[in-house]
Amino acid sequence: MLGASAAYADGGLLRVSQPAGPFEISVFTAPTPLRVGAADVSVLLLEHAGRAPVLDADVHVTLRLGAVTRSATATRTAATNKLLYAALLDLPEPGTWALEVQVGGPAGAATISTTLDVAPPLSAWIAFWPYLVAPAVAIALFAIHQRLKRNQIPPP
Fold first, then answer.
1. Which DSSP letter does residue 136 get?
2. Which of 38, 35, 43 minimizes the C-alpha distance to 15?
3. Residue-by-residue DSSP string for 65-133
4. Which residues of the chain fall below pLDDT 50?
5. In sequence order, which residues have a C-beta less than 8 Å from that of residue 25 and are 6 or more positions away?
6. Dihedrals φ, ψ of 111, to 5°?
7. What proportion of the chain, given as a percentage, has pLDDT over 90?
8. What pLDDT is attached to residue 10?
9. Looking at the DSSP assignment, which residues form a beta bridge with residue 91?
């Protein structure tokens, strides 16, 4: 359970969902909140008319902060949920990043954009405190158990 917060998964927090061209494009990011380091950007692409998932598109994700640009092609093979297109991007500094998603497919092309707030990285103490405290808690529970066991009255 302690390591679950570091796992990246398809989906995450919905950042934007809007119609664009022949598509309905929804963008999710993980982790929440976004911090300096690895970020998972997942895109759900639906037909605007029939609301069916589009599984044969080219999806390109770009993040910009000033002169710093990070780009990746989001693919279904990189996603655990095969209805999504996923890309893993490295965010080197905090700030308000501009996110742009470009989609192209047999039905046409579309682009959406939004902004993402990226927080500074967690300090090492905050990130690893559960791992430092867990042994002390286990030792304390063992000591309490032994004391209670020693103080029990044996059955006649």
1. H
2. 43
3. ETTEEEEEEEBSTT-SSTTEEEEEEEE-S-EEEEEEEEEEETTEEEEEEEEEEEBPPPPHHHHHHHHHH
4. 1-9
5. 16, 17, 18, 19, 43, 44, 45, 46, 101, 103, 110, 112
6. -140, 135
7. 69
8. 53
9. 37
- Are the beta carbons of 122 and 37 closer than 8 angstroms? no
The span from the CA of 101 to the CA of 114, in Å, is 9
| β-bridge pairing 23-30 and 68-74 | unpaired
User: Could you give the CA distance from residue 88 to residue 38 in angstroms, rounded to a whole number?
Assistant: 7
Closest CA to 10 of 33, 37, 41: 41
Query: Residue 86: which residues within 8 A CB-CB, separation 6 or more?
Result: 10, 40, 41, 42, 43, 74, 75, 76, 78, 79, 80
Residue 79 dihedral angles phi and psi, to the nearest 5°: -100, 140
Apex CA 19: angle with CA 13 and CA 22, to 5°? 130
CB 27 within 8 A of CB 114: yes
pTM above 0.90, yes or no: no
Q: Please tell me the predicted confidence (pLDDT) of residue 152.
A: 78
CB 18 within 8 Å of CB 24: yes
Residue 61: domain span: 2-122
Count of domains in the chain?
1
